[in-house]
């Protein structure tokens, strides 16, 4: 994913800004969720430091983490994060559009289309990171990476709280990729949204 994302950034920005390694250093050596994605860990670590410090970049990484978790649930990969090593066919167009090339599968249970689903998770992640980057460059500081979450500035994984999705056993998922979300038995899926049981 890193080389595709770097290529997408460079073409859409119109300049050679990133390599695969520098893209990872800039956007993945960061905070709690983004760091765990790089490590390929099997658990969601929860929010970064505190709700007050939680930022939009960490939220995008959390969304990708949730997408990968549903890949494991849907395709029975026993929590080994198969999504992080799944091979799929994708390319970056001349205009910088990230394109998943595997044929789509309309199966409601998503049981036959793991590569495309993983690709769709990676695609929307890269697009959201690019949007944050553009808004940061335009002067919207809320969309910039925060220095206190940069690993190069001393942020350590033990600063993360073990809260949130890690503590719950997710049994199924709701929605369609790439916006599919894990949920527990006390929740239900209503119009592709996770809601409290009985509230649909």
TrEMBL record:
<dbReference type="InterPro" id="IPR036444">
    <property type="entry name" value="PLipase_A2_dom_sf"/>
</dbReference>
<dbReference type="GO" id="GO:0006644">
    <property type="term" value="P:phospholipid metabolic process"/>
</dbReference>
<dbReference type="GO" id="GO:0004623">
    <property type="term" value="F:phospholipase A2 activity"/>
</dbReference>
<dbReference type="GO" id="GO:0050482">
    <property type="term" value="P:arachidonate secretion"/>
</dbReference>
<protein>
    <recommendedName>
        <fullName>Phospholipase A2 domain-containing protein</fullName>
    </recommendedName>
</protein>
């Amino acid at each position: 994913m890193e080389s595709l994302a770097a290529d997408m950034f460079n073409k859409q920005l119109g300049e050679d800004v990133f390599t695969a390694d520098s893209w990872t250093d800039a956007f993945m050596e960061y905070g709690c969720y983004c760091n765990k994605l790089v490590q390929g860990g099997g658990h969601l670590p929860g929010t970064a430091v505190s709700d007050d410090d939680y930022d939009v970049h960490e939220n995008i990484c959390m969304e990708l983490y949730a997408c990968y978790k549903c890949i494991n649930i849907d395709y029975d990969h026993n929590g080994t994060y198969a999504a992080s090593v799944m091979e799929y066919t994708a390319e970056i167009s001349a205009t910088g559009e990230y394109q998943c090339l595997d044929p789509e599968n309309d199966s409601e249970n998503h049981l036959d289309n793991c590569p495309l689903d993983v690709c769709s998770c990676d695609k929307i992640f890269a697009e959201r990171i690019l949007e944050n980057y553009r808004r940061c460059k335009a002067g919207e500081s809320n969309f910039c990476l925060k220095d206190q979450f940069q690993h190069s500035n001393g942020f350590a994984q033990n600063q993360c709280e073990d809260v949130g999705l890690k503590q719950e056993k997710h049994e199924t998922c709701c929605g369609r990729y790439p916006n599919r979300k894990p949920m527990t038995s006390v929740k239900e899926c209503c119009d592709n949204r996770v809601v409290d049981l009985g509230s649909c």
